[in-house]
From TrEMBL, chain A:
Lineage of the organism: Bacteria, Pseudomonadati, Pseudomonadota, Alphaproteobacteria, Rhodobacterales
Transmembrane regions listed in the UniProt entry: 6-25, 32-52, 78-98, 119-142, 162-184, 205-231, 243-266, 278-297, 303-323, 330-351, 371-396, 408-434, 454-474
Name of this protein: Monovalent cation/H+ antiporter subunit D
Free-text function comment from the UniProt entry: NDH-1 shuttles electrons from NADH, via FMN and iron-sulfur (Fe-S) centers, to quinones in the respiratory chain. The immediate electron acceptor for the enzyme in this species is believed to be ubiquinone. Couples the redox reaction to proton translocation (for every two electrons transferred, four hydrogen ions are translocated across the cytoplasmic membrane), and thus conserves the redox energy in a proton gradient.
Species for this entry: Sedimentimonas flavescens
UniProt key word Transmembrane helix: yes
TrEMBL record, chain B:
Alphabetical UniProt keywords: Cell membrane, Membrane, Transmembrane, Transmembrane helix
Family recorded in the similarity comment: Belongs to the CPA3 antiporters (TC 2.A.63) subunit C family.
Annotated coiled-coil segments of the chain: none
The organism's place on the tree of life at top rank: Bacteria
Pfam families the record matches: Oxidored_q2
Transmembrane segments annotated in the record for this chain: 6-21, 28-51, 71-99
Protein's recorded name: Na+/H+ antiporter subunit C
Organism name: Sedimentimonas flavescens
Membrane topology: Multi-pass membrane protein
Main location: membrane
Location within or outside the cell: Cell membrane
Keyword Membrane: yes
Signal peptide bounds: none
Automatic annotation (TrEMBL), chain C:
Subcellular location: Cell membrane
Residues spanning the membrane: 6-22, 34-54, 60-83
Protein name: K+/H+ antiporter subunit F
Family per similarity comment: Belongs to the CPA3 antiporters (TC 2.A.63) subunit F family.
Natural source organism: Sedimentimonas flavescens
Keywords annotated in UniProt: Cell membrane, Membrane, Transmembrane, Transmembrane helix, Transport
Keyword Membrane among UniProt keywords: yes
Pfam families to which the protein is assigned, alphabetical: MrpF_PhaF
NCBIfam families: PRK06161.1 (NF004812)
Cross-referenced InterPro entries: MrpF/PhaF-like (IPR007208)
Membrane topology per record: Multi-pass membrane protein
UniProtKB/TrEMBL annotation, chain F:
Protein's name in the database: Na+/H+ antiporter subunit G
Organism: Sedimentimonas flavescens
Keywords: Membrane, Transmembrane, Transmembrane helix
Membrane-spanning segments: 6-31, 43-62, 68-89
Stretch list, region Disordered: 117-137
Keyword ATP-binding applies: no
Pfam families assigned: PhaG_MnhG_YufB (PF03334)
InterPro entries, per the entry: PhaG_MnhG_YufB
NCBIfam families documented for this protein: CPA3_mnhG_phaG (TIGR01300), PRK12674.1-5 (NF009316)
Endpoints of the signal sequence: none
Length: 543, 114, 89, 163, 975, 137
């Protein structure tokens, strides 16, 4: 078995406590190890992506227990893609934090980053619904810590809302999981898929409730309307690099929706088109609300934050089609918008760090240091985010429009909101960067502790370069992503990889084990023995 | 018995929802606590109810009666621990916000009064 | 005979719990309520033990120990709060 | 030498016995493990309990416990009677100040605990200088008698045990 | 040279100014010019082939999945436009070198200009409409940068935004149109689309596609009613105006209409939309231009008018009109660019562009005056200049056009437009250059140096040459381009000066004469014009955008108003709605399980739980009381777990309960002790209804679940059967936790550890940030007694600690087989230590702590991880456990399981996390408790300094314990 | 012999139940916080104690498993109950008891709970008490 699959979880899970244990007081070592860890994660993710694109879904049985009795990790194209995206973002963010000095403004930044990676990677890899909850919590709690990194009134108040909102989400998650388990008797996603497919009609009511509530949980993470409320204040008040990292957080929700509603509750199956019926209107309204927010926001951070909501809406419009083509387009747009949002948050942070007391308000302040370069990057980021050519946002939108042909209202929404976003970004950018030249007063004093601004710019530029690469190599990228979509819409490969022979092997292990422990006082365990003998009779209820 | 448990879960949920809709952090935290009780019992009850059949081998009251479903229990244990960690963080966070802001309102004000 | 005694005892402690509850709901001051909570923990331990006898299982004793311990700590914590505000000084 | 490996023999014994009670398995394994714990835990917790008291009169403890047990039973009956049959307006609650001769904190604590556990009395407070206990009586027509009984029945014995 | 390379060259060239600008502006301009020149050269190498009717192609796959490919082609139309773009580009680059001052960032200018040039060349050479879209939008973006080039000018910023908004709008509409068009045609390649005329025009989506595409073309080419952005784009430096807003970019819309002419034109829809729009634009633009005093504004509206003219011609859908359109495109590019550059020279020299302040310049700057006069006469349509020829062709076409049955309408409008056109052209000459020399120019002008007038002079030469010998100098090009426009097979009639006394000539004469009359009566007309109310497009646009922004702001901040209650209300509402809706879409089977009987004790428990819950809600304003009540709920819940066969849960619940209570009390110390009633009765009522709905929903859900069996065999049967055999433990829950689903637990202990780290980090932030001062200033807000460390508690906790630790060890060890385990044990030990903190205080206890809690947490997470990773050495997956039975001499057999190592990790993590978290809270309290900052400095952190504190505080009793001084003295004497 | 154990166990159970009930009844019946403190702390200890002993005997006599866990629990309750009561009494002294009804202890100091510490000045305490009284009204 290929142990590398678990490495994206275990590596940060070891690194983080080691940083706490040995390097608590040594920022330099923390930085070295953090960057090394992130780099290793990138390398790992690349290797896993290569593996996933040549092999089918690969299964890693934790504790050597067969599914559904133990927890399995499953590596397929989609999870490999998410791992890669996460680690690239993580690396950029860590570099930026070091360059901007954010990491030294509070405790445990680097260990929390590693824990954050552990949580996100875990969520992307797991093949078990409850384990998904656990890793959601890991990534959430790490994100709480990162969000409030270095404190301050506004940040803490926004932090309270962020945490409380997500606590409500976690509660809903448990209600949903409980419902699903209570109907199906299993938590493994592949096993669930099998069982849901042959679910007796009498159970569909409750099952649908479980599926519907679960959708909402993911909608909370993805910040889909009406669950988007937590996002603007959180992203605006979080430290810049953290907000950039959070670009992937909404995608965790998106990932979960894509995964669960192609694998476990496929559209048109037992539960009908439940997912689409919920998702499509939510996505459209998110897109509208988000882009209106881009225009209506009075602070640059919020401009970007709302564009994240809008972009999630955009990609969900594609995913909610539940077709292979649209999913491919959605995946492309997801990769693009993650990088674009992260880049924009870093740029916004560059601005904030240099505008001193003026903060991010969309008002003219005398030109900041490196204004030209920052303005250029903002221009590029905004173009990408608004979906203007030539950057990947345009291509993504084009693909989504192409895949949703015939739904004219949807085209209208996408195109009109694009215009609103263009106007919004244009206003923000021209006020902050251009009107600045007309503003009176001295150049604002930048924050002192940027140890190496070059690194910060490199990290930001790197993300923009990523967007450019995504544009230039759109052909091969979409080919890969379309194959990913194809894999998602042939879930049998996933299910087979996890479940074929699993019950038989599991119960065979039981009988094999009886001999090796024959010397044990078995008489005190008579009830267990009873179960052992009669249970194998009905293992494969899902087949 | 099922009716008692279900109604208790429902009432605790209702109490929790009411409290999280308040305007100060403290009642909201209390509401979260109520909700987590409710969800824990909910999750636990998804394994169906059983009296004196703890999933401890060889300790069942009547050996033929079997055991109650251990999976939800394990899940609830995990959930309890996680929600404890979360509660600790949210309590500390709301305290920090209170100290910084001088009040414990949970609202931010329109776009944080900007 | 033991069965009836158990019935009686369980009934007593259940009733006791309700009395405690009354004192929690209706009390002039807060100390009474903490006291009622403390008593509840003690009555709960008794019920636990009685339940153990009823079901013939000794599996609940650890719970009893823990209840005793936590009941005590809770009372002390609440008491210290009433006394000083800051429970860890 | 023995002192070095067994700095708190009473505690070690107590912990070993408690372990056996807990484990409820009276086997060699349990005994060995219990002893091990009995040695290790006092060593770990030593900083948290500096100045562990020296018990001077071991048999005295047994006698004291017996007396207290008996008094608890008596007290419960007495209190039950008061609760059930004495109307509230007939109740004569009283505050009694008990000046202390005991020195050891542990001894004072035991005394205060004993007072609380026995009939109708309850240690409410210690004076700031540690000289006196403030005892509340549920129904004490004769407060001075209560004070004298406490000093005679419990404090004297505790002084023998601890000091 | 490959067409792709021709399009790419300007982009590559755009990189140069950034590098070269340090070596000087001339080098930069030279490099930029060289790039354009190179591209032009490459292009012209293909001229012979294209003239022969060949199409040069280059194809690259970019995004084959949706048919977006980098396909380029050079045909006649592309050749013409590309030549114009690159040729005029070179002239503009030269002109700009002298126009820009030293203060202007010339490097940026050339970068933007070349970006624009590349985008423009890309548009005209694209053989793929999606690729064309990319370039199309790029021109919008680069023009945004160029218009806003002078960042300090508000007009520049506003003009840039307006241009971006309007052309962006068009671009988006065009995206939709192109997607539809490509879909009808089955390909996005233009060369393919152009062959699909029948299919396209027959498609029901033809009209939507047409409108959407025209939306792009009209906005770009400033057609009515989108014409208003163009004059405001004149805030750009003049070279930009000359290049983008007269010669090239605004012609992109025309190009597009010409490009798709073969497949889109010829239908009534096309005619009525395009021709009408063109005609109206022509008229309106000309009329407004006459009354503009700003030279550039006049030229801008004139451009609008001429663009309308060309649009009108294209809209007619006839081949002759197409020829006229192509010809006028060339002519307009030459005279209008020359005019803009002249206006720029005037501005540059006199420092004003206001016609009212000018006049008489022909004496001071004869060269400029000559150039401007020739170009303006061409614009007016005076014979011998090229403008005359194409205008004649237009009037000829107009004369034969019947609009909705009215034969007189189009000719009439055309004549009026031409008349205005003549008038403003004359005004440009007369008011600018004729008349007496004034003495009040803002700056005394003279002719600029050679470099600045070279470019317009060159264009004016073309104006004259084409005007004189059209078939020699323009004929082949017009033939080539027009042939491409009409889709081949064009037999062009020669362009002649004299066709006899045609209606066109008459109309032309009327126009010229009328123009002169208009100019003569200009002053009264101008007064009338200024007196008349007229819609100010910019004001309307600004109003609309401001309204939109305002509404957007209102929606955004109204929706996201920071009210958590509303956010959570929406959350709840949506959850209930989706739950009910989802349920109603499925079926619900009847009950299949027998219910358990309700025992009296259970009923009592239920009553208590419900009462306590109700009281929490009713009394939640009294926070302390609410905590007590919550503890009761917790107690009952844990008893409920015991009753329902979940001892592990009960133990965990109750021990978590107590730690939570301590935590909440620590926080409540600072927080207000009561919650004021702030919500209105209405809100309370609504919240109550919502909560009850939510409660009913969840209650009904769990009831419905409990009355039915699992639809399939639950997986836990396997766990029950194999917990002992394969997991080595009797406590199935524990075996699940540490073995079957140990990975969950791994995540869970991590969560706990992270929580503690977060709390610690937050504490540090509060202690070292602005909060620190607030903390020091904080004063207790409740009654406080005097006894910090009550003696009885002190003694009791000291006695209890060893026993509690023993109990912890016991619970840890038995967990695998009986209720217990690492988590509960960890909590027990933590609670035992918390008791020490409560009794003896933070400093005293902390000083006795031998291990930092950070270390415990890290070791816990690591221990769990290492146990899990240990399996790798056996070649097994992460977290694979093993167990065995061992025997030591003298002892009985005992079991050892690797899962215990995992549980140990959990144990350590829990102890460390709980204590680190509580410690954080109490450190805040310590900071608050001191009256002066000095003592605050001694707060013990998880830092090496803690050891020093430990050394200091070796006293047996913490400060503040009520110990008799007498005894202390006595003890001191004893020692 | 079994009958003897049965009677013993039953008696203990009845006694336990009785005292448990009386303790909680006292909590309801007695007139003021100080007197209420007496009832449960004592009655309940005997109540639980009797039940615990009954349980111990029951398992030894009828289930053949001598467990002494119950002793542990009893020990624990007996050790902790006075402390809880003490704390609540102190809280009562601070909040619910008129200070003038108490005699001051002999010697220099006052009762511990009334001795102000360095961290809170007398005025502050007074202010807080004032505020708390307002709150109560
Ligand atoms: Na767990
Ligand atoms: Na356990």
């Amino acid at each position: 078995m290929d142990h590398w699959i678990v490495a994206p979880v275990v590596l940060p899970a070891f690194l983080a406590p080691l940083i706490v244990l040995w390097m608590r007081f040594d920022l330099r070592s923390q930085r070295v190890f953090s960057v090394a860890g992130m780099t290793a994660l990138v390398a790992l993710a690349i290797a896993l992506a290569v593996s996933a694109s040549t092999n089918g879904p690969e299964v890693y049985r934790l504790g050597n227990w067969e599914a559904p009795f133990g927890i399995v990790l499953v590596l397929d194209r989609l999870s490999a893609l998410m791992l890669l995206l996460t680690s690239v973002l993580g690396l950029a963010v860590v570099l930026y934090s070091i360059g901007s000095g954010w990491d030294k403004r509070g405790w445990h930044f680097h260990s929390l980053m590693q824990f954050q990676m552990m949580g996100i990677n875990g969520a992307f890899l797991t093949g078990d619904a409850f384990n998904l909850f656990v890793f959601f919590e890991v990534l959430l709690i790490a994100s709480y810590g990162l969000m409030i990194h270095s404190g301050g009134e506004a940040r803490l108040k926004a932090g309270v809302q962020y945490v409380v909102y997500n606590l409500a989400g976690s509660t809903l998650f448990l209600f949903a999981l409980g419902t699903i388990y209570s109907v199906t008797g299993t938590l493994n996603m592949a096993d669930l898929a099998q069982k849901v497919a042959v679910m007796p009609a009498s159970e569909t009511g409750l099952l649908r409730v479980g599926a519907g509530l679960l959708m909402l949980v993911f909608a909370v993470k993805a910040a889909l309307v009406p669950f988007q409320f937590w996002l603007p204040a959180t992203y605006t008040n979080a430290p810049g690099p953290v907000a950039a990292l959070f670009a992937i957080m909404t995608k965790v929700g998106v990932y979960a929706i894509v995964r669960i509603y192609t694998l476990v509750f496929p559209a048109g199956g037992t539960i009908g088109w439940l997912a689409q019926e919920v998702l499509l209107p939510a996505a459209a309204i998110s897109l509208i609300i988000g882009m209106i927010g881009v225009l209506g926001a009075r602070d640059m951070g919020r401009t970007v934050a709302y564009s994240v909501i809008g972009s999630v809406g955009t990609m969900m419009l594609a995913f909610a089609q539940f077709t292979e083509g649209a999913t491919g387009a959605g995946l492309y747009y997801m990769v693009h918008s993650t990088l674009a949002a992260a880049a924009l948050f870093l740029i916004v942070d560059l601005v904030r760090e240099r505008r001193g007391a003026a903060g991010l308000a969309i008002t003219p302040v005398p030109p900041i240091r490196n204004a030209g370069l920052i303005a250029g990057m903002f221009f590029a980021g905004a173009i990408a985010m608004a979906g203007m050519p030539p950057l990947s946002g345009f291509i993504g939108k084009l693909m989504i429009l192409d895949a949703t042909r015939g739904q004219w209202w949807l085209w209208g929404v996408v195109l009109v909101t694009s215009l609103i976003a263009i106007v919004g970004f244009g206003r923000a950018g021209s006020t902050v960067f251009w009107k600045a030249h007309a503003a009176a007063g001295d150049q604002p004093e930048p924050t002192k502790d940027a140890s190496s601004p070059g690194l910060a710019f490199t990290a930001t530029g790197g993300l923009i370069a990523g967007l450019v690469a995504l544009t230039v190599f759109a052909g091969p990228t979409t080919a890969w992503l379309n194959a990913t979509a194809q894999q998602l819409y042939t879930p049998s490969a996933y299910i087979d990889a996890v479940m074929v022979g699993a019950y038989e092997r599991a119960w065979a292990a039981t009988s094999g084990h009886e001999d090796s422990h024959a010397d044990e006082p078995a008489e005190s365990h008579a009830p267990a023995e009873d179960h052992g003998t009669d249970a194998p009779a009905e293992p494969a209820s899902g087949y | 018995m099922e009716a008692l448990v279900a109604s208790a879960v429902g009432i605790m949920t209702a109490a929790g929802i009411y409290l999280i809709l308040r305007l100060r952090t403290f009642p909201v935290v209390l509401g979260m606590a109520m909700l987590s009780y409710a969800v824990n019992i909910f999750l636990f009850a998804t394994g169906r109810l059983a009296v004196n059949l703890p999933p401890i081998l060889g300790h069942a009251g009547a050996e033929t009666a079997g055991y109650t479903d251990p999976i939800p229990q394990a899940l609830v244990l995990t959930a309890i621990v996680i929600s404890f960690g979360m509660t600790a963080v949210v309590v500390m966070l709301s305290l920090g916000a209170f100290i910084e802001a001088g009040d414990d309102r949970i609202d931010l004000g329109p776009e944080e009064k900007k | 005979m033991i069965t009836y005694a158990l019935y009686f005892s369980i009934g007593c402690f259940a009733l006791a719990l309700l009395f405690n509850l009354y004192r929690v709901v209706r009390a002039p001051g807060v100390t009474d309520r903490v006291l009622a909570l403390d008593t509840m923990a003690v009555d709960a331990i008794a019920l636990l033990v009685l339940f153990g006898i009823w079901e013939g299982t000794a599996i609940f004793f650890e719970a009893s120990i823990l209840y005793a311990m936590t009941g005590f700590v809770a009372t002390v914590a609440y008491g210290k709060f009433l006394l000083r505000g800051d429970i860890i000084e | 030498m023995l002192k070095r490996f067994l700095p708190h023999p009473h505690l070690t014994l107590l912990l070993t016995v408690v372990w056996l009670l807990l484990a409820n398995a009276y086997t060699i394994n349990s005994l060995v493990f219990g002893l091990l714990m009995g040695l290790v835990i006092p060593w770990i917790t030593a900083p948290y309990w500096p100045d562990r008291p020296v018990i001077r009169n071991f048999p005295g403890i047994v006698e004291y416990i017996a007396i207290v047990m008996w008094d608890i039973i008596k007290s419960n009956i007495a209190v039950a009677k008061i609760v059930l049959f004495v109307p509230n307006d007939k109740l004569r609650p009283a505050w009694v100040t008990v000046p202390l001769d005991l020195h050891e904190p542990e001894a004072i604590t035991v005394l205060a605990g004993t007072i609380t556990m026995t009939p109708g009395t309850l240690t409410a407070e210690l004076s700031a200088d540690g000289h006196s206990l403030l005892v509340h009586c549920l129904h004490a027509p004769d407060p001075d008698g209560v004070r004298d009984e406490i000093k005679e029945r419990y404090e004297r014995r505790l002084k023998e045990i601890f000091e | 040279m490959s067409p792709a390379l021709i399009a790419a060259l300007p982009f590559l060239g755009a990189l140069l100014p950034g590098i070269l600008i340090r070596t000087g502006r001339s080098n930069t301009a030279f490099a930029a010019g060289l790039t354009s020149g190179l591209a032009l050269l490459g292009l012209l190498l293909h001229l012979p082939a294209v003239m022969r009717g060949e199409v040069v192609q280059a194809r690259f796959e970019w995004l084959p999945a949706i048919g977006l490919n980098a396909n380029f082609m050079i045909d006649g139309l592309g050749m013409l436009f590309a030549t114009l773009i690159l040729g005029i580009g070179i002239l503009i680059i030269i002109y700009a070198r002298f126009y820009l001052t030293k203060a202007d960032p010339a490097g940026q200018f050339y970068t933007y200009l070349l970006l624009f040039q590349g985008a423009m060349v890309g548009i005209v050479l694209s053989d793929n409409i999606l690729l064309l879209l990319v370039f199309w939008e790029l021109t919008s973006l680069s023009s945004f940068l160029l218009i806003g080039f002078w960042k300090h000018l508000p007009e520049g910023r506003q003009g840039a935004r307006m241009a971006l908004t309007v052309t962006g709008l068009g671009g988006l509409s065009m995206i939709a149109g192109m997607l539809i068009l490509g879909n009808i045609a089955g390909s996005y390649d233009i060369s393919v689309i152009l062959t699909q005329k029948a299919a396209i025009q027959a498609s029901p989506l033809y009209l939507p596609a047409l409108i959407l595409i025209l939306g792009g073309a009209f906005t770009k080419s400033a057609q009515f009613p989108f014409h208003f952005w163009l004059p405001h784009a004149m805030a750009a430096p003049t070279p930009v105006s000359a290049y983008l807003h007269s010669a090239t970019m605004v012609k992109a819309g025309l190009f597009l209409m010409a490009r798709l002419w073969p497949v889109l034109s010829g239908t009534p829809e096309w005619f009525y939309i395009v021709a009408t729009t063109g005609l109206i634009t022509m008229l309106i633009g000309a009329k407004i231009a006459l009354f503009k005093d700003d030279l550039k504004a006049l030229l801008a509206f004139s451009t609008v008018s001429h663009l309308g003219l060309i649009t009108f011609l294209l809209g007619l859908g006839t081949k002759t009109a197409a020829v006229a359109a192509v010809f006028h495109i060339i002519n307009h590019a030459t005279f209008k660019a020359a005019l803009f550059m002249s206006a720029g020279i005037v501005d540059h020299e006199t420092h004003t562009r206001d016609l009212k302040r000018l006049g008489g310049l022909r004496h001071l700057m004869p060269v400029t005056a000559t150039i401007a006069t020739i170009a303006a006469l061409s614009m007016a349509g005076i014979p011998l200049f090229n403008g005359f020829l194409s205008k004649e062709l237009m009037l000829e076409e107009a004369a034969h056009t019947v609009w909705a049955g009215a034969a007189w309408l189009v000719p009439l409008v055309a004549v009026i437009a031409a008349l205005f056109s003549a008038a403003y052209s004359f005004r440009f000459i007369v008011h600018g250059f004729f008349g007496p020399v004034r003495d009040d120019y803002p700056h005394k002008p003279h002719d600029p140096n050679f470099g600045m007038w070279l470019s317009p002079a060159f264009l004016v030469v073309l104006v004259v040459l084409i005007g004189l010998m059209p078939m020699t100098f323009a004929g082949p090009v017009v033939q080539m381009a027009a042939d491409a426009v009409v889709g081949g097979g064009l037999h062009m009639h020669p362009i002649k000066h004299w066709h006899g006394l045609t209606p066109a000539l008459v109309m032309s004469m009327i126009a010229t004469a009328g123009g002169i009359v208009l100019l003569l009566s200009f002053a009264p007309l101008k007064r009338m014009w200024e007196a008349a109310p007229r819609p100010e497009a910019k004001a309307i646009f600004d109003w609309i955008v401001a309204r939109c922004a305002c509404v957007a702001s209102w929606i955004t901040s109204g929706l996201h108003n920071g009210s958590m209650a509303r956010y959570l209300m929406m959350f709840t509402l949506a959850s209930i709605a989706v739950g009910v809706w989802a349920w109603s879409g499925g079926t619900q089977g009847p009950a299949t399980r027998e219910m358990l009987p309700i025992t009296p004790v259970a009923l009592v428990g239920w009553v208590m739980l419900i009462t306590a819950t109700g009281c929490v809600v009713a009394f939640h304003h009294n926070r302390f009381l609410a905590l007590v009540l919550i503890s009761i709920v917790g107690l009952i819940v844990s008893i409920c777990f015991i009753y329902l066969s979940a001892p592990d849960l009960a133990l965990t619940q109750i021990s978590v309960e107590i730690v939570t209570a301590v935590l909440m009390l620590l926080a409540l110390n600072f927080l207000p002790k009561t919650t004021k009633i702030e919500s209105s009765r209405l809100k309370q009522g609504f919240d109550a209804v919502l909560s009850i709905a939510g409660g009913l929903g969840i209650g009904a859900l769990i009831y419905a679940l409990m009355v039915r069996d699992f639809a399939f065999e639950t997986m836990s049967n396997y766990h029950l059967a194999n917990s002992y055999k394969l997991g080595g433990g009797d406590n199935v829950v524990n075996v699940i936790l540490v073995d079957f689903r140990g990975y969950d637990t791994y995540g869970e202990v991590t969560v706990l550890g992270i929580a503690a780290l977060v709390i610690f980090a937050l504490t540090e932030a509060l202690l070292n940030g602005t909060a620190s001062k607030k903390l020091i200033a904080w004063r207790p807000d409740m009654l406080r007694g005097g006894d910090k460390h009550p003696l009885m508690l002190l003694v009791a906790t000291r006695v209890l600690l060893p026993i509690a630790l023993l109990v912890g060890v016991f619970i840890f060890l038995r967990g695998h087989n009986l209720p217990g385990g690492g988590f509960i044990a960890g909590l027990v030990v933590a609670i035992a230590l918390v008791m020490q903190y409560m009794a003896s205080g933070f400093a005293w206890t902390q000083a006795r702590q031998k291990v930092y809690y950070h270390v415990l947490i890290a070791c816990g997470v690591l221990a769990a991880g290492i146990t899990g990773a240990g399996a790798w050495f056996n070649g097994m997956p992460f977290l694979t456990s093993d167990f065995g039975y061992f025997k030591l001499p003298g002892l009985e057999k005992f079991e050892l399981a690797t899962a215990a190592g995992f549980d140990l990790g959990v144990f350590l993590g829990v102890v460390g996390s709980v204590l680190l978290a509580l410690g954080g809270l109490s450190r805040l309290a310590r900071r608050a408790a001191v009256l002066d900052e000095e003592r605050g400095a001694h707060i013990v952190a998880e830092k090496p300094e803690a050891r020093e504190v430990a050394a200091v505080s070796s006293v047996a009793y913490p400060e503040g314990t009520p110990l008799p001084r007498r005894w202390l003295k006595a003890r001191g004497e004893e020692q | 012999m079994d009958l003897f154990w049965e009677i013993l166990i039953s008696a203990l159970l009845v006694i336990g139940g009785f005292f448990g009930l009386v303790g909680s009844f006292g909590l309801v019946k007695l007139p003021d916080p100080m007197t209420r403190l007496h009832a449960p702390t004592k009655a309940a200890t005997l109540g639980v104690g009797a039940v615990l002993i009954a349980s111990m005997i029951y398992f030894a006599a009828f289930r053949d498993s001598l467990t002494l866990h119950e002793l542990m629990i009893t020990l624990f309750i007996f050790l902790t109950a006075p402390i809880s009561a003490h704390f609540l009494a102190k809280a009562n002294l601070l909040r619910n008891v008129d200070r003038t009804t108490l005699t001051r202890p002999e010697g220099e100091g006052d009762w511990a709970v009334f001795t102000p510490l360095s961290d809170t000045s007398a005025e502050e305490l007074e202010e807080a008490a004032e505020a708390e009284r307002d709150e109560a009204r």
